Amino acid sequence: TLQPEIDRHFCGETLTDIVKNLRSENTEFTTSALKALERNAPLAMACAVQIVRRLRSANSVRQALDMEYRYTFRAMEQGDFIEGIRAAIIDKDRAPKWAHPAPDAVPDIDVALMIKPLGADKLVWGDMA
To answer: Is the separation of the CB atoms in 85 and 1 below 8 Å?
Structure first.
């Protein structure tokens, strides 16, 4: 089972921590995991890691949906979403030029800005009786 390797390498608090853990060993698992990480938008992955970490103590699905809404609300203006579509669907070159050059090159402040509260644009829950 791969669970011990997954637990060991993906225990970091940030995407940068996870990348460092993976780079600390040269195994089939770490090579494959790093290759997979390098295909995806670094900011999106860094935000996903942070959202999961923050929601470990969440009491409701609404907290999770609120955090996800914050990210998706800002994803279009940030640019990686559009770049991913360009690379996969429009030009089909499969060579996106992400805002951050690598998974371990995403500053914590960029993640914080993507998932901070939305103020007047926050998700408003209707009465669900």
So the answer is: no
